[in-house]
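Repro:
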Amino acid sequence: MATTTRAHSFNRAAAQYAASRPSYPPALFDTVEELMGRSLAGARVADVGAGTGIATALLRERGAEVVAVEPGDGMATQFRTALPGVPIVRGDGDALPLATASFDLITYAQAWHWTDTARSVPEALRVLRPGGALALWWNIAATDVPWISAQSERIAHHCGVTPPPPTTRTDDRGAARLAGLEGLRLARRQVRWSRTVSLDLHLSNISSHSAFLVLGEPGTRAFLAEERTHLHDVFPDGEVEESYEVDLLVVRR
């Protein structure tokens, strides 16, 4: 129930999510192409848990023919506003509303952890064409950067969650993401990147995460006021450099 509540919490903050969440670097899609063994141009792609369409838009820019799958009302509404010409079907990864052997690539951007892998893995393999691939990725805050590590500790304390482990480039990081994929043809890469945003946008970004959305406005507002003071000491010009490492997993069928 707690996982379901957190998964659906994004629907009431879909516009905030679309405006503030980080995108993904071109190197990520270069690596996806390398690991799937073909160009995205002309590939038939299902972007599952597409949310507001951040990854969908980038896949289309690479020439892919994309169909989005999204369960949430709020997120789907925001998606249609941003990408009115892209087909979107309602559903989730545990029961894909897609034909068998109909896609070259299935992608999950920031979404695989909301699935039941006992169901989502067989579903992905069912929908993929022979030689197709499943690509899963997450933007992970680079906690080897001191200010990000300190912020992560403050967030964990305030929201009552487990702080993330230090960011490393070893394969034991984020082992939970590998659950359900044992025995499959799996490749894993990390792609480092960063973006510079205003302090306001950074605070909007972190408060769009489910830990804050389920916490409620009063608790979130109090945290953001304190966090603004912490970050102003680090970034007195009001420009925050966010650093990420995209954790990418690709499974070949």
